[in-house]
Amino acid sequence: MTLATRLAAAALLAASAAPAAAAPVGAVYAFGDSLNDCCFIGPFTNGPETWLPAFAAAVGADYPTPETAARDYAVGGAQSGPINVIPDTDAGFGFDTGFTSQLDRFEADAPAVGADDLAVIWVGTNDIWASALPSPSLLGLTLNQPLGPRPEVDALADHVAGRIGDGVARLRDTGFGKALILTPFDVGQSALTDGAESSALQTAYSLAVRDRLSGLFTDGIDTWTLDMVEVIASLQAGAPSNGFAFLNGFESCAPFGSDPGICEARTPAEQDSYIFYDAVHLTTAVNAVVAERAAALVTLSAPIAPVPAPAGGALLLAGLAALAAVRGRTAAP
């Protein structure tokens, strides 16, 4: 399937699916790392845009152009906490650029948002790949490892999902009525690693974070979670009949450490055959698929619902309440 075909499918989705939405989507605001960064440092892909403009068009939402990018707070290298995976990035800009710091800047800007507006969050990849390394360095770069080298899988998953969950609650409190979370894909598929052990740990972290986020419910805000582990895995499983021939960051359009222009110098058809643009970022062809999947999720699927209490737990609570009532009556004069 060519990029043109994928974009046509996204346009068809915009025409057919948007009227079925439970409520319209107003403006799209973006937070996170380079996968959402349209204009701060990025875009990090072989085309002029991330996946967000096509997604916004498909759901009938307003999204900023690079010239009016005030609603995209994402920064390449951002981690789920306050700082960047490369501390020198924050030092160079003179302020912290991580997800929680993006929320600080958003709250300071105090834009008027409402129940129809959608916050899009894609972050965690930079926590994962850096934490899986045995030391805080790669290719001479000093890295931020939020919990130190190689923390327990559950600890890192709780850290990343906790920061994202807290962020969704903060966005709700500013007035947002909708949030879309994209999980990290399997970061073990990237080339940001020092060997097989780190790659395996990146995969374990990715799956655990995905599982934490898959049912993340925040009261008072409609939330959807797109499973990017599944999205990329489905493209890999469907190759080569779907047009993809190069499937991971180790066989990317612009190989790790090379000039990114190597990818842009290839023909459009050649570029469309790669899932990964470089060691960790996605090609325009994949971004079109992400936009399509995300739009279908938001327009055609119900938001995440709270997990009901187990029947046994509900009966226990009812029994305790009844016992308390009996004790209250027997103790009354």
Strand-helix topology:
Elements: H1 3-17, E1 28-32, H2 52-58, H3 87-93, H4 99-109, E2 118-122, H5 125-131, E3 137-138, E4 141-142, H6 153-174, E5 178-182, H7 196-214, E6 222-226, H8 228-238, H9 261-264, H10 268-271, H11 284-300, H12 311-331
Parallel strand pairs: 1-2, 2-5, 5-6
Antiparallel strand pairs: 3-4
Short summary of the structure?
This protein has 333 residues and is of the alpha/beta class.
Keywords:
333 residues; alpha/beta; Rossmann fold; 4-stranded parallel β-sheet; 12 helices; disordered C terminus; SGNH_hydro_sf; GDSL; signal; hydrolase activity, acting on ester bonds; VPLPA-CTERM protein sorting domain-containing protein
Structural account:
The chain is α/β, with parallel strands linked by helices. It has twelve helices and six strands. A four-stranded parallel sheet has the order 1-2-5-6, sandwiched between helices. A two-stranded antiparallel ribbon has the order 3-4. The protein starts with a helix and ends with a helix.
Average pLDDT rating: 88
Count, helices: 12
Beta-strand percent range: 5-15%
- What quaternary form is this? single chain
The number of distinct structural domains comes to 1
Tell me the name of the CATH class. Answer: Alpha Beta
Distance between the termini: 79 Å
